Amino acid sequence: MQCSYFDAGACRSCTLMGVPYAEQLAAKESGCRELLGDHPDLRWLPPVAGPESGYRNKAKMVVGGTVEAPTLGILDADGHGVDLRACGICSPGLRSALPALAAFVTRASLTPYDVPSRTGELKHVLVTESPDGALMVRLVLRSREPLARVRKHLPALLASLPQVRVVTVNLQPAHAAVLEGEQEIVLTEASTLRMRLPGADLHLPPQSFFQTSTAIAGALYREAAQWVAGLAPTSVWDLYCGVGGFALHLAAPGRTVTGIETSAEAVTGARTSAREAGLGEVRFEVADATAFALAADGPPDLVVVNPPRRGTGRELAGWLETSGVRQVLYSSCNAVSLARDLAAMPSLRPRLGRVLDMFPQTTHYEVLVLLERA
Predict the structure, then answer these.
(1) Distance between CA atoms of residues 34 and 346, nearest Å
(2) Are residues 78 and 168 both part of a single domain?
(3) Model's pTM, two decimal places?
């Protein structure tokens, strides 16, 4: 894949841009194997390649420039906007929506936030695309001041982008490198974006996490379901469950599945998905994963963990080591923290592993590992 922004030095976020994709994938698998060390019983399945371009289902655009000529992209070293509306790793649906969103910035007189002077209102435009082309648009504002203008011109935006289902305003008043704030104001009737995947429909609320590549997310959940089917557990925990991707795909007759997530919004979405699918044996709770595990009377047959980049941490890894749980399915976006967690639970031996390339053109990837108690 070639990128004019990368070639011009305007954006270097995709550090592997221009490297042949087969080399990228081979290097990721080799690096992952090296990080996880020597496990003689670990069998590696061939890596899952992702689409080289157009794979991102979410555009996180910093807004710069002026009301009359806004930029949607990143900031340069001086804090000025660099427009990346034609970014090649964003899905075609996202790219086609960005000009209309830039026009909305002008129409609604949303002054881009200027980092050097700390003035202006609109900080980010966040757009997520569902598998069927529907969009969620989130405007990150410094204050409520432009809210009336956003509401006034919203009908025109929806007319120009009929694929938009959810529009929200997020308030982030702090002058800090923080993408969004805690308060979300929903401006449309729908408050979640339906992510239709083979095996489950997921409801995505505005502040909830979803995997970057829809295609690889589907492959990840299918892989997990296939591995777990052969183990036939009767009870499963999905820790750090988000909107329930693993939990909903692992549901089966006679199997209880419990998803644990700190985000109340994500849990609400997961519960909606489970209810619509008629999955009475799948439940979700708002709780800290570590605290939930430590307070439990005993472990389930299988635990799924899909932690943030920092990993599960010493306390949860220690609980997994001593809990007696028979199998752990660990999905990681950071093999460094995964290796650290594996070292903290030596009784759980890696048996099966697979790299899934969630982030082509970058050094990042997802890795799925099945652990079984020795």
Answers:
(1) 17
(2) yes
(3) 0.95
